[in-house]
Amino acid sequence: MKSRSPFFRCRDFGRIESDLMADLTINRVESRILDVPLIRPHGFATTTSTVQHILLVSVHLDNGVTGYGEGVVPGGPWWGGESVETMKALVDGYLAPVLVGREVSELAGIMADLERVVARGRYAKAAVDVAMHDAWARALNVSVRDLLGGTVRTELDCTWALGVLPLEVAVEEIEERIATWGNRSFKLKMGAGEPAEDTRRVAELAREVGDRVSLRIDINARWDRLTALRYLPELADAGIELFEQPTPADDLETLREITRRTNVSVMADESVWTPAEALAVVKSQAADVIALKTTKHGGLLESKKIAAIAEAGGLACHGATSLEGPIGTAASLQFAASTKAVSYGTELFGPQLLKDTYVVQDIEYRDGLVIVPQGPGLGVELDMDKINFYTRN
How sure is the predictor about 1, in pLDDT bands with cuts at 50, 70 and 90? Predict the structure, then answer.
């Protein structure tokens, strides 16, 4: 039997590729709000959460494939200016009409068009961006990280965030996390209390467990310059290894001063929402690390831009969290798996803070690591019974 010539093999490949790309038209976009309880209250600088509110967005293609994304703001609108209610209004009323009738492979063009329809609205746009990535990757039977450039790593360090907790409760939780999950890095929330007392609480915790674990703090931009310069040196002496956004987001000069005057790494979070803001931090030498939140930046495409700017400027990136559920966490893991610049580990622990899951197989955590899901799309499959149970009526 004659073998086919390269010409025919090339033609066959073109036909196969055409078949794979067929029916990629988006025929509808749906959203629903999930209210999922947490395993314990989680304290931020200004509020405490007992339930995580999640906007679940689904993008449906003509070929029957569905992709999912999550819109999640840590602790509600106080942090990012959006809520699940505002996200749903934006997705249903303004973003979805731009998607319907277009091929999901136009993803970059669609996201550009969304900028002309809705200013900012990054958390809502992130949910749409991720859902399109998931749908497109599933249609091609590849992982989302393949669409983003391929695999750099398959597992990442995972820091556990304690929130604002009394000393004895925090120590107990750290011991339990070490014994059960192998965590060796912990983040402590500050900024909710009086600075001197807050500092004393964290310093005491560092004396209790600091010789066995890495400790970092997040002040959520709540301290002014004088407060930061007064108390951060005490925290450095106590052994804290990272200061996350101690001062207001737009005050890069003070952030730079802290970075230069303390012998501790400084991470910018609230200061970096956009590629332009990432460039400003790099140019001003205001931080050592950038907290990358795929939700905060408006999705995976914009996050790639920020990671590239940080890498070019010599800054590390940290895979930060908005306390997403398993869908949003899987998206951030696919992103981190494909992005060399995410070299400062992650805190993508969101699913473990939820009291229940709504995917068939949980994301894997072990030995202080989080494992990147395998399989097409985001690598996770929804449990629709649980989705329906947690859907807000």
Answer: very low
